[in-house]
Amino acid sequence: MTVCIWCLRENSTKAIEHIIPDALGCPEEFVLTAGVVCEKCNNRLGQVDQAVIADIEISAFQAGVPRKNRKQPGIYSYGNLNGGVFENEKFLVLNMDANPVTTPRGTLVAPFRGRERDVRGDFSTHGTEATLSFSTDIGRSKKFRRGLVKIGFEALAYYLGPSVARQSQFDSVRSFVLHGRGERPLMLTHASDGDYKNQAWPPFKRGVDYAATFRLAMMEILIDLSPDASLFPLFREFAEQNMNSSEYTFLPANA
Ligand SMILES: [Zn+2]
Predict the structure, then answer these.
(1) Of 56, 60, 186, 228, which residue is most buried, by most CB within 10 angstroms?
(2) What is the distance in A from the centroid of ligand 1 to the CA of 18?
(3) Ligand 1 midpoint to CA 43 (Å)
């Protein structure tokens, strides 16, 4: 029997836990052994993982990252935008029309209706060249932030061991990720190389408090895992003194 780092209950779950969602390309060794996250918590936190996948999947698709269980790259989380692979070619369908359109794979893509997961795009042609441009926001949903904190906390369990992660000083982190209680400010830095890369580093420690740091796609993410998020003002001070304001951002937007 192992004790789960999320619900702190004994369990005999057989599955390993991918620390970064598999659909975004988790480094092979970056997993927690069976039972460190129980099956119940794994299922319960699926929606939180899904929020992270939804906001990162365009970048993952462009980088050619296979989806879960080695399925082909794809974009599935948007209303009027869909991407996939057909006859070994990647396709992207952005529907700004009033009616559904069909992808090369034969699936329907809804029209643009101005909904939250719809993408506004522009299409222009210059001679024989066509350009499609659009932009999407990431990090608007609280579930996305919970998903990032989940990754950071599981990275701590990976580097320091599950027994450290089970300590009561992380109860507020558990409560935020599992139930969305409270708030946990995050700092995001844009990686200077612009590559799609997933990677983690050992947590940073100050006194008895920890902060987790990892890279997801083109971002480096710093997560305060102290009980009352007391490290966060230090992150802010460091960023303001040492970095260009266009290189970093804080979440939530009003943090
Ligand atoms: Zn559990």
Answers:
(1) 56
(2) 15
(3) 9
Question: Cα–Cα distance between 114 and 118 in angstroms, integer?
Answer: 6
d(CA 167, CA 146): 19
Q: Which long-range contacts (CB under 8 A, 24 or more apart) does 10-17 make?
A: 11/35, 11/38, 11/39, 11/40, 13/37, 13/38, 13/39, 13/42, 15/39, 15/42, 17/42, 17/154
Whole-model pTM above 0.70? yes
17 forms bridges with which residues in the sheet? 32
Domain map of the chain by residue range?
Answer: 2-49+139-251, 79-134
Give the contacts of 76 (CB within 8 A, at least 6 positions apart): 57, 82
Question: Which residues, listed in sequence order, are joined to residue 11 by a DSSP beta bridge?
Answer: 2
16-29 core/surface letters (b: 16 or more CB in 10 A; e: else): ebbbbbbbbbbeee
Residue 243, sorted as left (phi over 0), alpha (psi -120 to 50) or beta, turns out to be beta
Q: Which candidate, 150, 186, 143, places its Cα nearest to that of 170? A: 150
Ligand 1 centroid, distance to 46 Cα (angstroms): 13
- Tokens 């579930």: give the residue: 143
Ligand 1 centre and the CA of 10: distance in Å?
Answer: 8
Rounded distance, CA 128 to CA 189, Å? 38
Distance from the CA of 45 to the center of ligand 1, in angstroms? 10
Conformation bin of residue 91: beta by default, left when phi > 0, alpha when psi is -120 to 50:
beta
Distance CA 211, CA 37 (A): 20
Average pLDDT of the chain is 93
Asked if 200 contacts 213 with a C-beta cutoff of 8 angstroms, the reply is yes
